[in-house]
Model the fold of this input.
Amino acid sequence: MEVLRPTLIRIGERIYRKNFIQEQSCQNEEEDDFYTGPGDCADEPCDAFTVEETERGFQCKLEAPSPLYKYIIGKKGETKKRLEMETRTSISIPKPGMEGEIVITGQQRSGVISAQTRIDVLLESFRKKQPFTHFLSFALNQPEIQQKFLQFKEEVLEKCSKDRGVSSSLFQNPAKLHLTLGTLVLLNEREIQKACEILQRCKEDFDKIIGGKPLPVEMTGIEYMNDDPAMMDVLYAKVCMKDRSDKLQVIADRLMEHFVSSGLMIKEWDRVKLHATVMNTLFRKDPNAEERNYINIGKSPFKERESFDGRKIMKLFENFCFGELQLNSVHLSERFSTDSSGYYATSGQLTFS
Done:
């Protein structure tokens, strides 16, 4: 199937076809060499890149965040050397930790274009393997909601603490209760600024949907993310519009569409799954863990992940009401951060009412 239906890689406005090659497993991807060979990408149309003609040949420049430089260089510089040899170009990369432009020069225009195409695919491949740094969120940590959440936690521990795996370490920090709309990998200030600009451009869409008014929502009921309630990994509260309209879902999906089209977000699902995590087995090992399950439900960064028996919790608290609140802003939240209120630090924010 890899041959008949090869993977398509979208980079900006261009789409590449990745031809199948035999891959070897390695223990540490970041330390091993990775290289996109001559047959991995289709020839690039000559007008797809901005290539300047110089006194010594041709030149083009591309921007990439410094954390990705090492993947172009490769182990002991082998990737860069092969790229230069096979495309007959010279590739200049800024020093590690320094932001700047990658400059490709060569005698032949086709060689410069080929080198840039391969570097683009290389960067995109490894960007997808980076842990997310930011996420779009609605804050759900209003005082009334926090109080009801703590009540929920107290009652669960009182009535279900003898059930397998149930303990206080599973519960979310009440100050960080939130609705996740999507995750992003932003590797430098330029990318963070781009994300902030995209967020602000969403306001016009929001105004059309909700007329500049806040979204009245309620957190009522709980649900789990896997098939067996006796083997739960994540338990979440359901969040919906008080009038049962689909406005919250429409806004979430519209946000995702804007960020996916910009290349800053990977589309994993047709629709955003609206949920607010209240219990997560990741918290047992790391209280600051984020909702990686939002992207890869059922996959865990840990080799072994101890589930908990949530059958009694579902039976007793299936319709638990956490309260009502007004949503009026979307945050570009920083992972592993805390602001003065106890919520995540914000890189950008869109207030729509």
The CA atoms of residues 155 and 317 lie 9 Å apart.
